[in-house]
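PROTEIN DESIGN WORKSHEET
SECTION A - STRUCTURE
LENGTH: 280
TOKENS:
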């Protein structure tokens, strides 16, 4: 793959990268998630490193991602044991604290604030759930589908049947700016989840985000024409991955926020140049 806009890093300086490249080449028929496809579109090397260098990523993601992971894990655990509304708040809180990766926080203040935020969100969500009548069909459900010979996968945190009979695939979101209805309509990850579930069942589900920080619920529906666009986007990205030969690094401004930068030799090289030049 030739990158024309930003600097390109080709040589494999790190022996792990060489091994990982070989493994990706031999598993190109694996199911691709929206996260994989988005990583590849940003930087092919990011996809490679994100598949293999997972322990370092967790630390680089910081407190907000640790919060997302722990809140989701606590809610999934509760739903797997009868439902969030059936647990006491104390049990839900303990589950969250047990799952929360404190090491992702910069200091004890951030740790306390993030834990408090998580507990408050869980308490509110639990209170809201006690009044709901939706039927919970599945929890932490992984779906797979094949489009034009290519494998795709997506996970729903919850699968529900609403009171009006509508099938809903839902995810939790703890961010301060969750995707509202308009953004959700264009959000590739949710679109791919809906497209995959639609391909495995006789109905097109609605997508739902439980935006836990503002305490809102956002729904999105996609029609068949919109699903064609989502599938086309996924197929195009997966074909580019299959055609790639070196998963070259596309170093640029996005490296500063890249969760795999500590494993990336291209970033280390670029960082050294920036420091030598007196930049940040
Ligand atoms: S740090 Fe930059 S070059 Fe390296 S994987 Fe991430 S985005 Fe790509």
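SECTION B - SEQUENCE
RESIDUE ASSIGNMENT:
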């Amino acid at each position: 793959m030739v990158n024309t806009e930003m600097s390109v890093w080709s040589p494999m300086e790190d022996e792990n990268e060489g091994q990982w490249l070989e493994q990706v080449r031999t598993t190109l028929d694996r199911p691709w998630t929206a996260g994989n496809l988005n990583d590849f579109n940003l930087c092919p090397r990011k996809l490679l490193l994100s598949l293999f260098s997972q322990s370092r990523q967790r630390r680089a993601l910081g407190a907000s991602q640790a919060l997302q992971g722990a809140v989701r894990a606590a809610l999934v655990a509760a739903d797997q044991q009868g439902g969030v509304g059936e647990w006491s708040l104390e049990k839900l809180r303990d589950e969250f604290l047990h799952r929360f990766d404190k090491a992702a926080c910069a200091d004890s203040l951030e740790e306390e604030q993030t834990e408090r935020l998580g507990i408050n969100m869980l308490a509110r969500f639990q209170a809201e759930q006690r009044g709901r009548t939706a039927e919970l069909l599945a929890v932490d459900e992984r779906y797979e589908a094949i489009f034009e010979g290519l494998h795709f996968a997506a996970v729903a945190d919850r699968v529900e049947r609403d009171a009006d009979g509508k099938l809903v695939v839902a995810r939790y979101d703890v961010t301060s700016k969750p995707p509202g209805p308009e953004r959700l309509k264009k959000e590739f990850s949710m679109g791919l989840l809906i497209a995959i579930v639609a391909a495995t069942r006789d109905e097109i589900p609605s997508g739902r985000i439980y935006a836990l920080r503002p305490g809102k619920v956002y729904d999105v529906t996609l029609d068949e024409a919109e699903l064609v666009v989502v599938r086309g986007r996924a197929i195009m990205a997966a074909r580019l991955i299959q055609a790639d030969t070196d998963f070259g690094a596309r170093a640029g401004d996005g490296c500063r926020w890249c969760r795999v930068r500590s494993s990336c030799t291209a970033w280390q090289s670029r960082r050294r140049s920036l420091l030598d030049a007196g930049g940040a």
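SECTION C - NOTES
The longest strand covers residues 135-147.
Residues 43, 45-46, 49, 249-251, 254-255, 258, 260-261, 264, 266-267 surround iron/sulfur cluster (CB under 6 Å).
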